[in-house]
Amino acid sequence: MNRHVGIIGTGSVGTSVALSTLLSGAASTLWLHDLNMARAEGEAMDLAHGAAYYPDCELRTAALDEIHQCDVVVIAAGRNSRPGETRLDLLRDNARVVTDIGRALTGYTGTVVMVTNPVDVLTLVLQQSSGLPPERVLGTGTMLDTARLRQMLGRELGPATHSIHAQVVGEHGDSEVVLWSSAQVGGVPVRQWPGWSQATEMRLAREVREAAYEVIRRKGATNHAIGLVTASLLRCLLRGERRVLTVSRVQVDAAAQALGLQGVALSLPTVVSAEGGTQVLLPQMAEDEAAALRHSAQVLHQAAGSLIFAGNALSGMRR
Questions:
Q1: Which stretches in the chain have pLDDT values below 50?
Q2: CATH superfamily, domain at 4-139
């Protein structure tokens, strides 16, 4: 079975996604595209030279109009955050790039994975500018935040990361929500763990929320962990694994409307299969967590609304 992936954007994030995808064996064909095609060619050559050390995969560059042939397209185009800058500060610059890509993907029949930040608003921008159904435009969302939370809980409590079940929902950013009320370690609620306290929750939530800023301050960009996250998402899409992942997508169902999330792209636990993010699950939440999630949706709604400005970056976008 051919598992055909295209990556648009071969900066530090796009190339980390490419390397993780190759090592995972998720794709049988991997095409790279960049506005600077010389760079894409160089990255393809460099990655191809390591072919003896990853599962067999056809690797080459592709023009944008060829990307329609892929089963899944990953968008990693745009600039990265700068030190001291929030993800939402990136919005206007990267919205222009994503809108153009969305128009080029009109009529595409596969699934698009948005990685570029701010990932939630850009997932909405891509879905509207391309006209693709919401379940086939997914952002990596809080998959990375959830991975960071699990890693930090493992460091704090001792058990392996794989034994920890905890989720971050909402924005991939400063208004994200850790669902402490449902977090467990081997079936034991973390709030029943010896020595656990509200102060521990607040400290770990802050560390998860600020993790990207700390990495950017030290090395200028985050790329390796998001590469691993994206490769895992691609494997799920290409193999139809029906895993529940905290991906971002435009929320359109009745449950989302009841919580005030309608029409906003944000992360909730979602069943991901070969058809995309087909079923959004609304987890049990404490009232303070539900209120925080509504606030996160409002932050994202306001950010999307800020794109209506003089020279409208989204002019001509589908509504």
A1: 309-319
A2: NAD(P)-binding Rossmann-like Domain (3.40.50.720)
